[in-house]
């Protein structure tokens, strides 16, 4: 594949496209990337949703959107977390996804076993009136920023400040960017604009840096778990 102009990759022919392979594709470097199953690299157009969940040696990567007809208000992340709890082997995962609609590709890994499951054109139309008392508030960028500022005890204005100096980082800002994408599934362009990043590709870079911090800091993971509960309330 030759070099692609970043502007061209946002045109309709590339919308909702992705590429899964053993390594990143240089021509698609401006697209978000995710590591999959410790073996593959997934590059996907910013218009395409990508959600991941992992516990131990089990990992699920969802490309697209899932719909649970019984609880249509569920997010991709909530559905994926429940699937992960039922994922013991290939047969159990296939059974668990049997009642789900939407348009999606699911990449699963369980130890050395890796496989894909897809429903590329399966739609369930649901008309359910949800009582106001049960409706969840939308997870907005402002809501995330307010929760992070309160939870990490920093002024909300600090989340919009770029760190100065080599090697410096704004941890609360990275946390807010990470939550905006991973928990709320907000688009890269919207996140970049809200947090005053120069380009939507910077969102993926910020998330990658924060994920490395999470791996090395149990205390940070605990604080993030508390923040996630707050923004989901």
Structure report:
The protein is an alpha+beta fold. The protein has two domains: 8-122, no CATH class; 135-232, Chromosomal Replication Initiator Protein Dnaa, Chain: A (Orthogonal Bundle). It is built from seven helices and seven strands; from the N terminus they run βββββααββααααα. A four-stranded antiparallel β-sheet has the order 4-5-6-7. Strands 1-3-2 form a three-stranded antiparallel β-sheet, with no helix packed on it. The chain is globular.
Number of helices: 7
Can you tell me the residue ranges where pLDDT is under 50 for at least 5 consecutive residues?
1-9, 121-128
Q: Briefly note the structural class of the backbone.
A: alpha+beta
Domain unit count: 2
**What is the radius of gyration computed over CA atoms, rounded to a whole number of angstroms?**
18 Å
Main-sheet strand order equals: 4-5-6-7
**Shape label:** globular
Query: Could you give the order of the helices and strands?
Result: EEEEEHHEEHHHHH
Total count of strands: 7
Mean pLDDT: 81
Percent range of helical residues: 25-40%
Hey, roughly how much beta strand do the residues contain? 15-25%
Distance between the termini: 45 Å
Largest sheet: 4 strands, antiparallel
Topology:
Blueprint: E1 18-21, E2 33-36, E3 40-44, E4 50-55, E5 58-67, H1 76-86, H2 90-96, E6 101-110, E7 113-122, H3 141-151, H4 171-182, H5 188-194, H6 201-216, H7 218-232
Antiparallel strand pairs: 1-3, 2-3, 4-5, 5-6, 6-7
Helix pairs in contact: 3-4, 3-7, 4-6
